[in-house]
Write a structure and sequence with these properties.
The protein is mainly α. The chain has a domain of 31 residues. 63% of the residues lie in helices and 0% in strands. The protein is built from 5 helices and no strands. Helix 2 runs antiparallel to helix 3 and helix 2 packs parallel to helix 4. The radius of gyration is 15 Å and the shape is globular. Its main location: mitochondrion. It comes from Golovinomyces cichoracearum. Keywords: Chaperone, Mitochondrion, Transit peptide. InterPro entries: SDHAF3/Sdh7. It is found in: Mitochondrion matrix.
Length: 103
């Protein structure tokens, strides 16, 4: 169990949030891009989000759905916090990506 000191140290931004449903999360991501990214990055990011949400529209595996939504929600939280600037991507996540994503 986390002590109150460790909770204060982590801050409120790092506290886990309830998962947003797909459509509100999709809208939040697009708003976050609009607010925090330069135009070129925003256009690329918006297209990527749209294609990912379209391709996952008919997924029925609950574990896959929860993983998909939680990763996108963590991405939105990072962008909103500006801690991501200059951060390198986790090597474990890179290894899990398909060849279509990474040439």
């Amino acid at each position: 169990m986390a002590s109150s000191a460790s909770i204060r140290k982590q801050g409120l931004n790092n506290m886990p949030m309830a998962l947003l449903p797909p459509i509100p999360l999709y809208r939040r991501l697009l708003r976050t891009h609009r607010k925090h990214l330069p135009k070129e990055m925003r256009l690329l990011g918006d297209e990527y989000i749209k294609s990912e949400f379209r391709s996952h529209r008919n997924i029925e595996n609950p574990v896959h759905i929860i993983g998909f939504l939680s990763e996108w929600q963590m991405y939105a939280q990072k962008l909103e916090g500006d801690e991501w600037i200059g951060e390198k991507m986790d090597q474990g996540k890179i290894e899990k990506m398909s060849g279509e994503i990474i040439p």
